[in-house]
Amino acid sequence: MSNFPHYFIAISLPKRLQQFFADWQSELKTILPYKQWTNFQDLHITLKYLGPVSDIKLKDLIKRLHAISFTPFHIQVGSIGMFGASAKPRVLYVAVELSEALADLKQQVESVTSHEGFVPEERPYTPHITLAKKWNGLNSLPDKIEHIKRNFTEQIRLYVDQFLIYRIFPKESPTYRMEAIFTAKGGGGTGAIN
Fold first, then answer.
1. pLDDT, tens only, 138-166
2. CA dist., res. 66 & res. 159, Å (int)
3. How far apart (Å, rounded) are the C-alpha atoms in residues 29 and 137?
4. pLDDT at residue number 140
5. Distance, CA of 24 to CA of 148 (rounded, Å)
6. pLDDT-based confidence at residue 74 (cuts at 50, 70, 90)
7. Rounded to an integer, what distance in angstroms lies between the CA atom of residue 93 and that of residue 82?
8. How far are the Cα atoms of 56, 110, 113 from residue 65, in angstroms, in the given order?
9. How far apart, in whole angstroms, are the C-alpha atoms of residue 110 and residue 113?
10. pLDDT at residue 190 above 60?
11. Fewer CB within 10 Å: C terminus or N terminus of the chain?
12. Please, which residues bridge with residue 176 across strands?
């Protein structure tokens, strides 16, 4: 196993949106038995998990990622989704619209990282914001899960004018720390909820 730090590439959320979903987490914790709840400051939309990366490889990757060209765009976020068995879902998340602009940014990130030797992602891309994972209940809760899907819904426009590389610090909270930032052409917006 590598001793290099682990990294991933993601879209960050503005503080107001992090707090909004932290409020959801507070309510959901009283209903659902997840073992691990994401620190609200760590909430993000993953574009590419990189795993362990050496300093030299990271510098090369950052240089190549700066060449990615995209214009700022909006995406919709806000309804609850789940991965895994419907009665005991292993991951609880906020769904993110897979717009053409987001799909294009994801494809460019995959192209650059593949060129740098990272394994391409073969699963279809399902953008999301992980709220909790690791179901910790003995029993399934289908009624509560259906209630949550019906009642935790919003349509929030998220302005995207940058993406980042984060380094993972597994023993800390928050767990993720920004390592590099990549800005859209004509970007520079606040990333605030619109």
1. 776 767 778 888 888 888 999 999 999 99
2. 20
3. 12
4. 67
5. 10
6. very high
7. 6
8. 14, 10, 8
9. 5
10. no
11. N
12. 168
Q: Hey, what are 184's tokens?
A: 């859209």
Distance of alpha carbon 91 from alpha carbon 145, whole angstroms: 12
Terminal-residue alpha carbon distance, the chain: 43
Amino acid (one-letter) located at 180: A
Q: What is the largest CA-CA distance in the chain?
A: 51
Q: Report yes or no on whether pTM surpasses 0.85.
A: yes
C-beta separation of 61 from 109 below 8 A: no
Contacts for 38 with CB less than 8 Å, ≥ 6 apart: 25, 130, 131, 132, 133
Q: Which residue pairs, CB below 8 angstroms and at least 24 apart, start in 25-29?
A: 25/131, 25/132, 27/152, 28/92, 28/131, 28/132, 28/148, 28/152
